Structures are given as structure tokens and as C-alpha cells.
């Protein structure tokens, strides 16, 4: 039996009236659970708070009934957070790397669901984040970056040039710039571009006393420059001699055998040879073409239709499926803001309290069949084209070209608990719980700058123009999105034509990828067998998943298309 109570919310915000929250609670519900509900409803970012009834603090481990709370009781929610609470939260966000004030504010909002300004107001501090940082001895604001003051003052500031030099000594002495930058990220969990605020190539060219460029996008230590250039010259001479020898051989007239993984020949789509005009001229001409194309493929007309469809699905599942749904998250390209015309997919993940974290083969299929039956009975027939159950979702084809995958996940308390729970399972047992990371995965892509999302949409369009032999060889939206993000981290903001070229270069060498992120977890948390896989494109939010797992994605066609086709034909 439930009861309605009124909770008076007391914060330290200056001039704010005491808020009244009416809640329906069960006598068996714990005090801790009720506190958390009030905090969530009032957008309070701090865990330091208490419930008071009759002038006494309620024990959070006890139930409301045990504490004698009734509908007639006067219950107060009292915030106990201080400046130190904010400092602790900010330190947690600054652990991995230094951040600008905007970046820190954005990350705080993502993690705690409220802006830093509002969080400060609730504890009675009327100032902006930048001013608060300046007033605290725990932080230093220099060069537009916020860093923590560490106890170990003997630590020297990070020298990017020295660290790149060390990486070259350990792995070189000659490396591709992208490979060098990748090693730097793996070591320090931050990109070279973020630290030096310029393109890595420009930074390397600036450090002439340490580094030298030898060939196309290759860098070596200055002391090895002559040696490496001599090697390249020798290779050119030998290559020229080899080509001449082959030109005299009758065997060169024979066509190479078809690649064994290709089931059908891709239609010939070739642009005029890039030798027909200078590369710079071509890039300038392509820039306008990219912008024009993006305008055509960036469909905004479906937003209202998508919102209506997702709202209907959410309402039906919550009202008719008798599930204890605690949260619903919108994912897919629609949720990330990277959808293109004629490729509009969305994902709704329902986080359900009580779902087990193991034995999914026993409960997943019956659950999906039940949800499908409920949606079939209640979803507007004039909106639905078809509906099927897959291994892990109810797939709905909504009229107008929208595809919605309805998925389910156990409800976890937080991200850390999700990782810990899945860490207890084996690799195959984890796969059905991929939707558990939908919130973090969607946020990771959605928060990328606008120009990066433009490149994502263009790369998806390019993919859809190719003749892929089967789903196993077709790169997913997520693979392309991560490649674009990684390319943007390496080169910063460049012309769209250059950005596309960088992405194509990475795709052409996909089998050499080794990318590990550190946005949500530490690289040391990565499931160790994954580190042996090649290629390696880690999921930024899931330390148990290699997005480029060769068992799930055959990259050979992708590499072939990326190296042999041009964006515009």
C-alpha cells in the first residue's frame, strides 16, 4: 500500500523559497531511496543530504514505515553539501587531463545532470565556475586550462616533445605521425592536439631540434634523419628497378585473381585521376561539394515524426507491459544527432528493475515476444509498416523510413556498477547487455563538435554508395563515428576535404588500428584479451568491447574501397 507525502526541500540557495514536493511512496521503501528520488526531481547534484521528520534525522537504511512516516508527517529534505563537495566533484573530472572551463562545465553537466552554476547556487555560492576555480587553492587556471594542484610538487610539467621523443626511441626511430600520436594517447590518455592546441604535424615541424619529417607523414628523430632518408632513397631506387623488370615480364598482362571475400564485383565508380589537376585545387573544389552534399543528406523534416513514434512506443511499453521501468534512453543515429536522409534509425533502451544480469537466453526471448504482442495491439496501425523480434530487440519499421529497435537492460545504479556487473560475466554472456551502455555511448558521440558530426554524416553517405557483399563486411554507424572522432582528435579542426582524406587514410589502414580511449574508463581496465586483437578500436564507454573485432566485422572490403575509390565520382 502506498501513501502520499509532502517533502519540504531546503537548500542554501539565496532568496529561493522552500520547494514542496509531493511524492507517492511505499512504507517499505527505504529512506535512502526516497532521498535519491527527491534529489533527482530537484536536480540536486550532491549526495550529502538527509531526511528529517519530527525534528529527527531519519536512518537511510530503515524503511519509511519503520521510521513512523505517515501521510500526515511533515518531512524535510535538507541539503548538507559544502564547497568541499563541489571541489571533490571537480577533482574527479580533472583526474585524467586538464580541461578548459567550458569542457569542465560540460562534463559536470553530463555526469551530474545540472550546470555548475546551478550546483553552486544550491549551496549558496553566487558565482560562475571560472571565478570559483580562481578562488580555490586546489586548482590552477593557466593558458585557458584548469589543472589540479598536486601534492607532489616535484613532478615536472608534461613536455610533449620529450614524451614523443621517448616514444620514438622505444618504437622507432621512424613512425607515422598518426601511429606516434596513438601511442601518446595510450600513455597519457589525452591527444597531442588537446595538449599543444595545434595539429600534431605542425607541432612536430616546429620542434626542428628533435624531429625530422622523412617522406609522406613519417617522422623520425633528428639524429636519424640522414640515415632514414638514405634508406628511403635506396628503397626508391630498388622499387624503380623492380617496376622496370616487371614491365618487361609478360606476366604483368594477367589480371590479378579476384579477392576471395568479394561475392560480387563493385560497380566501377571512379573520379577523374587526381593527377589531372593539382591536389590543392581539387580540395578547394571539393569543399563546396561537401557542403552542398551535406545540406542534401541532413534531413530535419523527420524530427516531429520520430518524436511522435518514440513517445508512443515509450508510453505503450511503460503502461501495458507490467515492467518496472526506471529509465528510458534514446540511442541510434537519431539519439546521437548523426542521422542522414534515408538512413534514419533510432534505438529505445528500457532499463528495467529486477532483470537479471545473467541467463539472458532464458528470459530475453519471452520478454521480447511479450513486448512485440503488446506493441502490435496498441501501436497505431497507420504508423507501423512491420515488426519482428531479433535476438536482442523488437525491430519496428515505422512508416516513412524510420527503424526503431526496442531493447531492454537491467537497471544499474550507475556506470561503475554496470562495468562491475558485466565484468563478472564471460565474453559471450556480456554481449546481450551492450544496451546497458547506451546512455554513455550516445553522449560520447552527441557531445562532439558540429563539424565532426558533419563528417560523420558524409562518411555514412559514402558507405551507402558502396556495393558491400554482406552485413559482415559493412561498417556500422558506430565504427564510422569512432573513426571520425579519432581523426578529429589527431588533426584538430581542418577543412572538410582534409578531414575526409584523414578518415579515408585511417580506413585504408584499418587492419593497423590500435585505438584505446580514456573518457569513461582507464586503459588498465580494458579486458586484457582484447589488447591482443588486431585491429583494435575500443568502445569508448565499454571496456569489454572491441568495435573492430574481426569475428564481427571483416574490414578487407572497407580497406579496399577506402584506398581505391574517391568520395565524389
Provide structural commentary.
This protein is an alpha+beta fold and 569 residues long. The chain folds into 5 domains: 3-81, Ubiquitin-like (UB roll) (Roll); 84-148, no CATH class; 166-224, no CATH class; 278-411, Beta Polymerase, domain 2 (2-Layer Sandwich); 448-513 and 548-569, no CATH class. It is 43% helix and 15% strand. The strands form 5 sheets. Strands 2-1-5-3-4 form a 5-stranded mixed beta sheet, with helices on one face. The protein has a 5-stranded mixed beta sheet with strand order 12-13-16-15-14. It has a 3-stranded antiparallel beta sheet with strand order 6-8-7. β1 (3-10) and β2 (19-25) form a beta hairpin.
Q: Radius of gyration over alpha carbons?
A: 28 Å
What kind of sheet is the major sheet? 5 strands, mixed
Work out the helicity level.
Answer: 40-55%
Strand order of the largest sheet: 2-1-5-3-4
Structural class: alpha+beta
Overall pLDDT metric: 80
Stretches where pLDDT is under 50 for at least 5 consecutive residues are 151-157, 245-280
Q: What is the fold named in CATH at topology level of the largest domain?
A: Beta Polymerase, domain 2
CATH structural architecture of the largest domain: 2-Layer Sandwich
CATH class of the largest domain: Alpha Beta
Q: Going by CATH, what is the homologous superfamily of the largest domain? A: Beta Polymerase, domain 2
What would you call the shape?
globular
Distance between the termini: 68 Å
Domain module tally: 5
Percent of residues in beta strands? Answer: 15-25%
What is the β-strand count? 18
Q: Can you count the helices? A: 21
Amino acid at each position: 500500500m502506498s501513501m502520499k507525502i509532502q517533502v519540504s526541500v531546503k537548500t542554501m540557495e539565496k532568496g529561493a523559497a522552500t520547494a514542496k514536493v509531493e511524492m507517492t511512496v511505499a512504507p517499505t521503501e527505504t529512506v535512502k531511496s526516497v532521498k535519491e528520488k527527491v534529489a533527482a526531481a530537484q536536480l540536486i547534484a550532491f549526495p550529502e543530504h538527509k531526511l528529517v521528520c519530527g525534528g529527527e534525522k531519519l536512518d537511510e537504511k530503515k524503511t519509511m514505515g519503520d521510521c513512523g512516516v505517515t501521510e500526515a508527517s511533515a518531512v524535510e529534505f535538507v541539503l548538507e553539501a559544502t564547497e568541499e563537495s563541489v571541489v571533490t566533484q571537480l577533482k574527479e573530472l580533472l583526474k585524467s587531463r586538464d580541461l578548459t572551463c567550458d569542457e569542465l562545465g560540460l562534463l559536470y553537466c553530463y555526469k551530474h545532470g545540472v550546470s555548475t552554476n546551478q550546483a553552486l547556487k544550491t549551496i549558496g555560492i553566487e558565482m560562475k565556475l571560472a571565478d570559483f576555480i580562481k578562488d580555490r587553492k586546489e586548482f590552477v587556471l593557466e593558458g585557458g586550462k584548469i589543472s589540479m594542484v598536486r601534492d607532489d610538487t616535484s613532478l615536472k610539467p608534461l613536455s610533449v616533445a620529450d614524451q614523443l621523443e621517448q616514444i620514438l626511441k622505444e618504437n622507432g626511430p621512424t613512425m607515422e605521425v598518426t601511429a606516434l600520436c596513438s601511442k601518446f594517447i595510450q600513455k597519457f590518455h589525452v591527444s597531442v592536439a588537446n595538449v599543444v592546441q595545434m595539429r600534431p604535424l605542425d607541432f612536430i615541424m616546429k620542434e626542428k631540434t628533435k624531429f625530422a619529417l622523412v617522406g609522406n607523414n613519417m617522422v623520425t628523430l633528428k639524429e636519424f634523419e640522414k640515415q632514414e632518408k638514405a634508406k628511403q632513397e635506396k628503397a626508391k631506387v630498388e622499387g624503380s628497378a623492380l617496376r622496370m623488370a616487371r614491365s618487361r615480364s609478360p606476366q604483368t598482362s594477367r589480371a590479378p585473381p579476384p579477392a576471395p571475400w568479394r561475392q560480387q564485383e563493385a560497380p566501377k565508380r571512379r573520379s577523374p585521376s587526381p593527377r589531372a589537376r593539382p591536389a590543392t585545387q581539387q580540395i578547394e573544389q571539393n569543399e563546396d561539394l561537401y557542403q552542398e552534399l551535406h545540406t542534401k543528406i541532413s534531413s530535419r523534416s523527420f524530427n516531429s515524426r520520430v518524436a511522435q513514434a518514440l513517445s508512443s512506443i515509450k508510453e505503450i511499453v511503460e503502461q501495458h507491459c507490467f515492467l518496472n521501468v526506471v529509465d528510458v534512453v534514446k540511442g541510434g543515429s537519431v539519439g546521437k544527432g548523426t542521422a542522414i536522409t534515408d538512413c534514419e534509425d533510432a534505438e529505445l533502451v528500457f532499463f528495467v528493475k529486477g532483470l537479471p544480469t545473467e541467463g539472458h537466453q532464458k528470459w530475453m526471448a519471452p520478454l521480447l515476444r511479450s513486448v512485440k504482442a503488446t506493441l502490435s495491439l496498441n501501436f497505431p496501425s497507420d504508423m507501423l509498416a512491420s515488426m519482428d523480434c531479433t535476438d536482442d530487440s523488437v525491430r519496428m519499421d515505422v512508416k516513412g523510413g524510420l527503424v526503431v529497435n526496442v531493447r531492454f537492460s537491467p537497471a544499474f545504479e550507475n556506470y561503475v556498477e554496470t562495468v562491475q556487473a558485466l565484468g563478472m560475466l564471460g565474453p559471450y554472456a556480456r554481449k546481450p547487455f551492450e544496451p546497458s551502455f547506451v546512455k554513455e555511448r550516445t553522449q560520447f558521440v552527441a557531445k562532439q563538435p558540429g563539424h565532426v558530426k558533419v563528417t560523420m554524416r558524409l562518411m555514412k553517405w559514402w558507405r551507402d554508395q558502396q556495393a558491400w557483399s554482406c552485413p559482415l563486411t559493412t561498417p556500422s554507424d558506430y565504427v564510422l563515428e569512432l573513426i571520425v572522432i579519432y581523426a578529429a582528435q589527431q588533426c584538430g579542426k581542418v577543412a572538410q576535404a582534409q578531414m575526409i582524406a584523414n578518415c579515408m587514410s585511417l580506413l585504408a589502414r584499418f587492419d593497423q588500428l590500435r585505438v584505446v580511449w580514456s573518457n569513461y574508463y582507464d586503459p588498465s581496465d580494458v579486458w586484457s584479451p582484447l589488447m591482443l586483437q588486431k585491429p583494435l578500436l575500443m568502445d569508448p564507454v565499454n571496456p569489454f568491447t572491441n568495435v573492430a573485432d574481426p569475428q564481427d566485422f571483416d574490414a578487407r572490403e572497407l580497406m579496399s574501397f577506402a584506398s581505391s575509390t574517391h568520395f565524389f565520382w
